[in-house]
Amino acid sequence: MKKNKLVAFSLCAALLATALTGCGGDKAQDNNNEADSKEPVSISFMTAATTGTVYPLGSAIATLWNDELDYVTASATASNGGVENLNCIRDGEAQIGVAVTSIMYESMNGTGAFEGTPDPNLRVLAGLYYNPNQVVVSADSGINTLADLKGKRFAPGAPGGTSEVETNYHLTALGLNYPDDIDAQYVGFTEASDLMRNKQLDGAWIMAGIPTAAVTEITSTSGGKLIPMDEELIEKLQETYPWYAKFTIPAGTYSGQDEDIMTSAIKITICTSADVPEDVIYDLTKTFWENIDTLSESQSILKSCSVENAVTDLAGLPIHDGAAKYYKEIGVLE
Description:
Number of strands: 10
Largest sheet: 10 strands, mixed
Number of helices: 11
Shape: elongated
Strand content: 15-25%
Radius of gyration: 26 Å
Helix content: 40-55%
Order of helices and strands: HEHEHEHEEHEHEHEHEEHHH
C-alpha cells in the first residue's frame, strides 16, 4: 500500500512539473537560450599614452563592459593616440578606440594623415567631451583678441602637435600669415608656463580639456588671462573644417576669469567600425550610458558628458546602427 501511495505521489509531482513547464518553463528556457546564443566577443579598446587621462578612462569603461556583459571580454590598450587608434580600427586590429572628430573625419575621407587610405566603415559609438582651444596671454601683454597676437612672442605648441596645428588653422582663417606674423616659440605647455612667468613670452595656445593644469598655472602664478574668439571666426573655420564646435569656458574656471570665454572646440569620441555587429554595439552603448554616473566617480572628465550630447557636433560622421538604435530608444536621436 505504501509503495502504491509513493508511486501515485511521484506521478502527481511529474504531472505538476509538466504543467508548470507548459505555463512558464518554456519562457524561462527561452531566456536562457537567448543569453547562451550570444557568441563570446573580444574587444580591443585603443586609448592613448598611460600618462594621460584617456588610458585610465578606457580601462574603466572596459572593466564596466566586462562586469556587465557576460559575453564580452574587453581590454584597454595603450597607444600613441587617435591616428594609431583609427588605423588599428581600419585594419581590424581593434574594435573600439578614442579619437577626436577632426582626425576621424580625415580617416573616413582619406585626407590629412590618412591620405589615400579612407575608412568608409568608421562609425561613432558616442560623443564624449570637448577639447577646447585655450589662448592664454599675459595680462600686461596688450593682447585682447587673436588679431593682437601679431608681432608678439607666442608659443603655438610643439612643431606638428595638436596646439600648433590649431594655431595655424585659426590665425590663417583670421587673415594672419602664420607663422611669420608672430614671434613663434615652439615649446610645450610646461615650458610656455615657465617662460610666461619669467616675462619671456606673451602667450601660448593650449588645446586640452578644462580645467587644464598649464592654464591654471599661468593664470594663478603668471598673471595670465584667457582671450575669447569671435563667433564669426569659428563659423568661418566650420566652412572648411566641419569638426569645430562653439564652446564656452564658464566664468570661474580659472583664477581671475570673471566672464565666460567663447572659443572653438573639438569633440572626443568613442569610435568603432561598421563591421562590429549591431547587437554588440547596442549593448556596449547602453551599458556605458546607464552607468555613466558610476564611471564619473572615478573618471571626473566624464562629469561634463551627457547622453543628449552624445550625438551632437560629430562633423557629420555616421553613428553606428547599434548605437543609433539605443539613442532612438531614449529619444535623443530621431
